[in-house]
From TrEMBL:
Keyword Metal-binding: no
InterPro entries according to UniProt: ABC3_permease_C, Macrolide_Exporter_MacB
Coiled-coil ranges per UniProt: none
Protein name in the entry: ABC transporter permease
Record-stated family: Belongs to the ABC-4 integral membrane protein family.
Pfam families: FtsX
Amino acid sequence: MLRASLAQMRLHLRRLIAAGVAVLIATTFVTATLLSTDVMERTVHNAILAGHGDADVIVTGSPTKETLDDVRAVPGVAGADGRQMNGITLSTGTVSDHQAASAVPETPGLRVDVTRGQHPDSPGDVIVAEPVAERLGLEVGSSIDVIADRRGPDEGAERMANTVTVTGIFPDPGAAFDSSIPGVFAHPEDIDAWSASSDEGTYLNIGVVAGSETSPDELRESVASSVGDSGVQVRTAEEYAADVAASFTSDAQVLVAVLMGFGAIALFTAGMVISNTFAVVVAQRTRELALLRCVGATRRQIRRGILAEAGVLGVVTSVAGVGAGIGLTQILVQVLGRLADMSWIPDGINIAASAIALPLLLGTLVTLIAALWPARAATRIAPLAALRMPASLMAGQRTSTRRWVSSALLVAIGAGLLAVGVAASDAGSVGLGIGVGVLGGAVSFLGILLGTVVLVPLTVAVLGRAVRRFSGVPARMAVVNVLRHPGRTAATAASLLIGVTLVATVSVGVSSAQASALDELDQRYPVDVAVGYSLDQIRAGETDTAAFELSTGVTEAVRGVDGVTTAIPLRGARLEASSAESENPARADVSVQGVDPDAARDVARSDSGLEELRPGKVALSAVTASQLGLERGDRMRLGSDAAEVELEVVSTEFRTASVLVTDDDLADLVPDAPGNVLWLGLDATADPAEVIRDIEDAVSAAAGGTTAPAVAGAAAERAEFERVLDMVLAVMTGLLAVTVVIALVGVGNTLSLSVIERARESATLRALGLTRRQLRSMLVMEGALIAIAGAVLGILLGLAYGLVGALTAVGGTWSVTFSVPWGRVIAIVVVVVLAGMIASVLPGRRAATEPPVVALATE
């Protein structure tokens, strides 16, 4: 029987190719996912190590100078240095950049590799990371100003600046992964001069280099013994990099789980294509199988033969998929390494046994499981009845009452779970809500898949009414053909339904979450950009505030930046604030900004805190409100040497100033308050990150040196948030596209098998006058109808699941704004329908090219 099954596979290999392609795509995806995850982990690992030189052991947990002394005294230690970082501003006079700076280690083995130039060997020399050099246009030998704020424990702040020389450039560090890796290394004397505090305090970490005869593990044990129970953590550099990489990737398990989830979806869709393929192939071979049973083959042998075919197909295509996944990942790594030009990207992939065994096992199992029902169905009909029954009738399926009940029950249970998930999220249990919501979505969608045998034909019937009214004979015949086999049509459309539903759900869910988050950002950070001086460095009531006033040159330079549409000036002062609600209120020195509320509303993205601001009113930041014990509706006092006023609190959530009052109220308190801040509105079409860079450059050029005001705002954060979500959406859509491709393979496969099954029928139509073009048009319309049915149902489900997903994920934190990316939704429908029509081209061509006489003679 096995030989007969293999012979049948060879004979009908063309009919199984599409099913094999579906398995190949899915196993390629799973293999590439596993290998890419390993590449990502090694990339992060190498990047972190590159930022710590050739350290063998790293001590973390805020080690002190005493800890460093103890480490240096350990036998087997060749060198050890602590790392501190200070925030500085690098300025060329026209371009500036904020960076973290650290001292070049005294131990050569702890220094980062320099690709150009050399390490600093005297004060006034620095090395910078490649991105910093590119941003500021620096080369080895370039001069640049360093601006730093130095403040002692009992001293006022002092802004200082000096000019340094770039002596070297090192590769892009792994600072994105490890916050203890700086962008600038300088001579230790310069770092001391730039330090934000006269007290050196603790280190971020201590790097240790082992002697030639000491292994990293031995050194770790020795260092751990020397520091005792001081609260620090001692790890080898490899262990440290692995732990930081794990925290960066959430132990890499979340990413693996997400990607493998997409792989599971692809395999599930492939299984539906395989099951549909075997169902049609088995139906076409029913007479042949009946003859085998008549000559002695048992039902078990028939089933085993069909499963043997599926097993061989699964193994062969899974092996091909694993090979394709390995090749694809290797090419991707090579291309990425050349494009990114980063030394810490691995040269190649590590092929673990699990990356081969798992896709092979999954691909084979999915193929076997998908063939179980067709194998069982092949033996349900008595041999003599099968010999008399036309193959076209055998391909049909009937909808049972049990199926209807099961479908309705699953949808009801799933809907209930989705409601519970939303309620749990609203109650604050977001993790539980998401878990229950995912389960509810899976259960309800399974119920919908069971009901597709009715839903899809019903949708096609509705579409068919329009087709019959406005189309010719081929289109009408296409509607009849699609409705004639509801089971096969539903199975084909179901694979498309999965892909389209997932893409629509992700699009709507991410778009709604994005809109909700941006609305929240607008409420909390209503101003795009603020340029100015902070008053936190002066004491309340001090009158020498001339240094904090924005010059006319700075103001005009900012107004002239492309992308800046509006600039609203604010005046500021440092005043004493207290609550007017108690006899012994808490008092605090606060920064007070005065603004024209009407003008400010032209800049603000949200009126929160501004809509009620007028003389006699005050808006507070949440920190200031908490510090003074004030709530909305309370009254607070602001006092200066000139006067004291009582104001009503109208907001406690304003984020762009500690205390915000009207210009008139501030003038009563401090008549000569300096104009220290500009609120800026940006052009909606401009790139906020680029505009902010241009503003920083303009401010640096106009103010120069130590007088440059700070540039801050939520525009860049808002834009970065949008970019991250857009990237997530693009990646997830790309991953789900694998499912859509597999589904379209199923559409083409179904039409191909339908052409083979209906060869005599097509020949009869040709003999009655149907032209080749009309026959091809009929098959194209069949593919389009199936694709449209799957797309329409998928979009409707995606809208519902996307809304529920947004309510579950962010509804407990923010007010949800339902947003539908109609452009993307329409694009999904267009792409799916076009692809469904394209999938029917080859089957249509095959049906049209066979002469009617030959087809009629075929049994």
